[in-house]
Amino acid sequence: MDRLLSTIKIQVNENLYNKDPETSELGKKIIENSIKLIHEIGVEAFTFKKLGKEIQSNESSIYRYFENKHKLLLYLTSWYWSWIEYQLVFSTFNVNSPTEKIEKSIEILTQTISQDSNYGHINEVLLNQIIINEFSKSYLTKEVDSENKEGYFSVFKRLVKRLEEIILEIDNSYPYPLSLASTVIEGALYQSFLKDHFTSITDCDSSHKIKEFLIHLVNTTLKNSKNVR
């Protein structure tokens, strides 16, 4: 799988950037250091001025790539979900059992992230922490509807649809497959946040337990739904 993934270019909506950062060393430097800086100080405190200082470049050079920090955050979140999607697709490609498919998918969503050598300028470990802490800030905005129409969230929505399809393979009469799929993905992030910051309100103290919880949630929900019908 690693060899296959190394040949794949992660695709991000071209409307999220003014110039593709993957096409130049400066662009890659912007991505690499923005991940480090957002992880360190959070997206609220992050500015292009601070990033420019980190990479020893003019603030104006960053604006040649991204219109603002919100677009940069959308770029990073889209890249991450594309990266997760490719792993999910390859992990489930030769799996025939729908139940095993959903379990492998949840394993990908809850895995302890390690750095991917295929993308040297992107620290996936830090990016994963940004997604856990900052992803909701990419869509809890006044502009979410217009941005959705522009396709800024298409990768995330596609990932939800993939899980929905697997859920329907298990039970094609289950009435809430999209809701369950989106709950699993958001739940993976939320429980990860809770285990790091609010341990008193979660039973999950590790990625393994989050995986077990979500698998139990899906299996129990689908089983109970059949019993009700």
Secondary-structure blueprint of this entry?
Blueprint: H1 2-6, H2 25-41, H3 48-55, H4 59-63, H5 69-92, H6 98-110, H7 124-134, H8 144-149, H9 154-170, H10 177-197, H11 207-228
Description:
Helices cover 65% and strands 0% of the residues. It has 229 residues and is mainly alpha-helical. The chain has a single domain, classed as Tetracycline Repressor, domain 2. The relative contact order is 0.11.
Q: What level of helicity do the residues show? A: 55-70%
How many structural units, i.e. domains? 1
- Examine the secondary-structure arrangement and name the CATH architecture: Orthogonal Bundle
Largest sheet: none
Poorly predicted tracts of residues: 1-5
Distance between the termini: 40 Å
CATH homologous superfamily identity: Tetracycline Repressor, domain 2
Mean of residue pLDDT? 93
Rg to the nearest angstrom?
A: 19 Å
CATH class: Mainly Alpha
Overall shape: elongated
Order of helices and strands: HHHHHHHHHHH
- Strand content is under 5%
In short:
With 229 residues, the protein is mainly α. The chain has helices at residues 2-6, 25-41, 48-55, 59-63, 69-92, 98-110, 124-134, 144-149, 154-170, 177-197, 207-228.
Keyphrases for this structure?
elongated, about 0% strand, mainly alpha, disordered N terminus, about 230 residues, 11 helices, Tetracycline Repressor, domain 2
